[in-house]
Amino acid sequence: MKGISYSRYGGPEVLAYGEVRDPKVGPDAVLVRVRAAAVNPVDWKCREGHLDGILDAVFPVIPGWDVAGVVVRPGTSVTEFAAGDEVIGYVREDFLSRGTFAEYVAAPVRTLARKPRNLSFEEAAGLPLTGLTAYQVLTRALGVRRGETVLVHAAAGGVGSVAVQLAHHLGARVIGTASARNHDFVRSLGGEPVTYGEGLAERVRGLAPEGVDAVFDTIGGETTKVSANLLAPEGRLVSIADPEVVAYGGRYYFVRPDAEDLLRLSQLAEQGVVTVHVSRTFPLERTADAHRLNQEGRTRGKVVVTVDGAEPGSGR
Predict the structure, then answer these.
(1) Residues 55-106: pLDDT tens digits?
(2) If DSSP codes are grouped into helix, strand and coil, which group holds residue 19?
(3) By Cβ atoms counted within 10 A, which residue in 151, 209, 256, 276 is the most buried?
(4) What is the CA radius of gyration of the chain?
(5) CATH class for domain 2-127+276-306?
(6) What one-character DSSP code corresponds to residue 100?
(7) Strand, helix or coil at 90?
(8) How does DSSP classify residue 264?
């Protein structure tokens, strides 16, 4: 089958399009024909070796953790899905090797849920990692409650845009940092936009003089430090970008595959609670360009790669 792979760490230039190994389908997995796969910051961070200290790379690596596609064949013990089912998945293993930027992927059932019927494959591909991250941080790590004020950083980005919608659905008041050009977009999601950068603390305090109850940090570094100083008494801070958040009394969170959480997200999407904004799509062979665009860090919503599948084992 055709796919994207890299045999060493590096920039987008290490990504090669061509023949890759066909996936083997275990008893508790399904073979999925990939229709779309979203690009996430973690993809290029893995590609550059930033996660080498926690994830082994089995080269050549097929990158990608997000997928939307169609079940071709269930494993021998799988009863949850059948051939022809449309699914989404956060297909993360505990090492880097067999990802979703290919015509097919073998996905464990613990990573999958049924695709929202009202979303295209491109939109649905942008939901798993970002949606699970937002859902798990807001409901588990931060425990956001109705009536609280939540600060979401990078509110126009992939994770941030879903977090704003979910926090609003939970009954929270949501303040979201974004560039001026994305303020209307953040408002459309249910948030109150503030411009990031110098003077951010003063702008947030202007909206929440007594501090915010919870901060969802997606940026790290100086933003984490500033966020800690914006908390109300008993306020909570969680970062998905900076493990050093613990130095400020916060918590670091790394999203986990969870079929029940993913199913809940699919249901929320079908109810219109969560939408996915796709800013641009690329064909599979241009995955390197998709990585470059995502790495710029200024994308509204999601960048998605689309895939034309072939028959498994056909050599195409």
Answers:
(1) 999 999 999 999 999 999 999 999 999 999 999 999 999 999 999 999 999 9
(2) strand
(3) 151
(4) 19
(5) alpha beta
(6) S
(7) strand
(8) H
